[in-house]
């Protein structure tokens, strides 16, 4: 009898500890939840029983709304879900959704997200013709800053993370989003922004040199243009060296994973089963 009760408890504990944490997915720009269907299906297939929440907010054109606003709305959903799962959830964002995901972690530092996977997101900003012309076909790269670094331009997500290496003074003066969420400009929320990152178990940054949209592609791993248009990698940038948002803290503790995968175009990351199997599933326990 005692033995039976004990085995019953042990078996239940095993079931509880072996069940997978829920996963929250955030899609990219100009698309919707449908673009995350393959990832969702693969998680459910390989990790049976996983609850996968695939947000359908801000699909299509509404994905161009202000980043803070989107993060606030989707973040409220995420926090509601986390309240049902006190043992924590995982968060995965693709493209702009990866930057939105990170913003949610920072804007809601009370979250209980364990692992955050950034799938080719413009974490350090964006400056490139290929990306620009997806959404603004007629806008010239060199003058885009005139639109984006304005009050009107800051109503758009792209304007919020447009990081023109030739106009850094205007960027810091006008951008209401990226310099703040990256703690390049201190605010009364800077500490919270850092806390929301350092509490993660793991941050996984996936990107690659054949992306063709995220420019420079290193932005997917917090690298960016420095002087003379040369790319400076994460570990040589202030955001890391001065631990502005906690990336160095994570790295020192072995909790930052940087994954570079060649041969993947931007519009393939979320459609490539081998990416899901090799670089996503291992972080969804
Ligand atoms: C979150 O949950 C609260 C209480 O259950 C509810 O009032 C609120 O509308 C929910 N918010 C969202 C964004 O679902
Ligand atoms: C930060 O400052 C703004 C305005 O200066 C204020 O509205 C906000 O409540 C402050 N936030 C915190 C967390 O102190
Ligand atoms: C950028 O170019 C200038 C002038 O050519 C040079 O003096 C400077 O050292 C360069 N900076 C970097 C980081 O390469
Ligand atoms: C899929 O991902 C693998 C790496 O896991 C890469 O080698 C391959 O080129 C990718 N295929 C496509 C079509 O993107």
TrEMBL record:
Keyword Hydrolase listed: yes
Enzyme Commission code(s) on record: 3.1.2.2
Gene Ontology MF annotations: palmitoyl hydrolase activity; thiolester hydrolase activity
Gene Ontology CC terms: lysosome
Concerning SUPFAM superfamilies, the annotation shows: alpha/beta-Hydrolases
Q: Which UniProt keywords apply?
A: Glycoprotein, Hydrolase, Lysosome, Signal
Q: Where is the signal peptide?
A: 1-19
Q: Which domain of life is it from?
A: Eukaryota
Q: Which reaction does it catalyse?
A: S-hexadecanoyl-N-acetylcysteamine + H2O = N-acetylcysteamine + hexadecanoate + H(+)
- Record flagged with keyword Glycoprotein: yes
For this protein, the record's Gene3D superfamilies field holds: alpha/beta hydrolase
What are the subcellular locations of this protein?
Answer: Lysosome
State the family it belongs to.
Belongs to the palmitoyl-protein thioesterase family.
Q: What does this protein do?
A: Catalyzes the cleavage of thioester bonds from S-palmitoyl-CoA or S-palmitoyl-N-acetylcysteamine (unbranched structures) but does not have activity against palmitoylcysteine or palmitoylated proteins, branched structures or bulky head groups. Conversely, hydrolyzes both long and short chain fatty acyl-CoA substrate.
The protein depicted here goes by the name: palmitoyl-CoA hydrolase
Protein source organism: Zophobas morio
Q: What lineage does the source organism belong to?
A: Eukaryota, Metazoa, Ecdysozoa, Arthropoda, Hexapoda
């Amino acid at each position: 009898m005692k033995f039976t009760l004990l085995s019953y408890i042990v078996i239940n504990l095993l079931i509880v500890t072996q069940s997978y944490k829920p996963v929250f997915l955030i899609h990219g720009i100009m698309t919707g939840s449908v673009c995350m269907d393959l990832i969702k299906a693969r998680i459910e297939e390989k990790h049976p029983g996983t609850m996968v929440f695939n947000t359908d907010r801000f699909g299509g054109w509404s994905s161009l709304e202000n980043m803070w606003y989107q993060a606030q709305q989707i973040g409220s959903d995420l926090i509601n879900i986390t309240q049902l799962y006190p043992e924590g959830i995982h968060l995965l964002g693709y493209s702009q959704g990866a930057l939105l995901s990170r913003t949610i972690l920072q804007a809601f530092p009370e979250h209980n997200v364990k692992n955050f996977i950034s799938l080719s997101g413009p974490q350090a900003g964006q400056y490139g013709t290929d990306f620009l012309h997806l959404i603004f076909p007629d806008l010239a790269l060199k003058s885009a800053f005139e639109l984006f670094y304005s009050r009107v331009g800051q109503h758009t997500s792209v304007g919020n993370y447009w990081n023109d290496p030739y106009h850094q003074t205007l960027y810091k003066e006008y951008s209401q989003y990226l310099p703040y969420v990256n703690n390049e400009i201190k605010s009364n929320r800077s500490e919270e922004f850092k806390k929301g990152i350092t509490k993660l178990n793991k941050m996984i940054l996936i990107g690659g040199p054949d992306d063709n949209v995220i420019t420079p592609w290193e932005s997917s791993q917090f690298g960016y243009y420095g002087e003379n248009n040369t790319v400076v990698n994460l570990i040589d940038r202030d955001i890391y060296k001065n631990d502005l948002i906690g990336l160095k803290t994570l790295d020192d503790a072995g909790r930052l994973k940087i994954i570079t995968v060649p041969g993947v175009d931007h519009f393939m990351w979320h459609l490539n089963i081998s990416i899901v199997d090799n670089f996503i599933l291992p972080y969804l326990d």
